[in-house]
Amino acid sequence: MTIEIRGPLELPAAREDIALQTADGLTLVGELALPEAHTPVATLVTLHPLPTAGGFMDSHILRKAAARLPALADLGVLRFNTRGTTSPRGTSDGAFDGGAAEQFDVAAAMDFVRERALPRPWLVGWSFGTELALKYGREHDIEGIILLSPPLHRATEAEVAAWAETDHEVVILVPELDDYLRPKEAADRFASIPHARLIAVEGGKHLWVGESQTRRVLTEIVAAVNPSALPLATHWPTD
Q1: Are 150 and 174 in contact (CB under 8 A)?
Q2: Which residues of 137-157 are buried (b: 16+ CB within 10 A; e: fewer)?
Q3: What is the DSSP letter of 58?
Q4: I want to staple 85 with a disulfide (CB 3.0 to 4.6 A). Which of 29, 51, 115, 228 is the partner?
C-alpha cells in the first residue's frame, strides 16, 4: 500500500528543534531535518518570504521541502525564523530590519552549518529570502543559491552583478505570472550573471500555490543539488 505525497504529508526524517545565535546577540528559532539513517548528500539553508507579509519558516514550499526532501532526495533542510518572526516553532528575538541586520541571521545559519559539518550547503531563498541570498550569500562557503520568485526590490544591480565574479551556481525560478518580476524582465535584470540558469515556470505564480507548482519547485531544487534523486517519488509506502 502507498499514499500519495501531497499537501502537509510529512515523510520520515530526523527532525531537531534548533536555536541559532547571531553576532549581535539574538537567538533565532529553527528546525533541522536530516535523512533518517544517514548523512545528507547536501544541505538546503532556507530563507523565508517577507515576515511583514506573512512569511516565516513554515511558508509552504519551505515546510514541504523539509517534510519531503530528507526522505526523497537525501537532503538536509535547515529552516529558521529571521529576527522578529513568529511561527509555531516560536518567535525569534529582535525586530524585522528590512533586510539589513538580517545579514547576521544568514551568518548565524551558516555558522550552524559549519559547526555541525553539514555537507554542501546551498542557500534557498523565496521572495524576500532571495534578497538576503543575493546580498549576503557571497560571504559564505556555499555551493550555490536557488532563488524562488525573486522580486529584486532590495538587492542592487551591483549586488546582483557581483555573482558573476564567483563560481557559485545561481539557479533562478521565475513564475510566468509573478506579481513582481516576470521572466522577460528577470532575464534582463539577471543578464549580468552569465552563468546563471533562469527557469521560467509556465503558469507559475509568486506563491507557488497548488501541488503541481510545489512539485515543480521541489524538482528544480533537487535537479540543481542532487539530480541523481530524480524523478522524485509521488507515493510513499504505508507498510
Answers
A1: yes
A2: beebebbbbbbbbbbbebbee
A3: T
A4: 51
Mean pLDDT over the full length of the chain:
98
Residue 67: which residues within 8 A CB-CB, separation 6 or more?
8, 9, 10, 11, 13, 33
Residues ≥6 apart with Cβ < 8 Å to 178: 149, 204, 205, 206
Residue holding cell 525586530?
95
Residue 230 C-alpha cell reads as: 530524480
What's the whole-model pTM score? 0.98
- pLDDT band at 239, cuts 50/70/90? confident
pLDDT in tens, 180-214: 999 999 999 999 999 999 999 999 999 999 999 99
Q: Mind giving me the DSSP string for 132-181? A: HHHHHGGGS--SEEEEES---SSS-HHHHHGGGGS--EEEEEEETT-SS-
**CA dihedral sign, ordered 100, 101, 107, 108:** negative
Q: How far apart are CA 96 and CA 82, in angstroms?
A: 8
Residue 169 contacts by C-beta under 8 Å, 6 or more apart in sequence? 143, 144, 145, 195, 197, 224
**Closest CA relative to residue 67, chosen from 22, 8, 114, 123:** 8
Instruction: Give the chain's largest Cα–Cα span.
Output: 53
Write phi, then psi, for 173 (nearest 5 degrees).
-105, 115
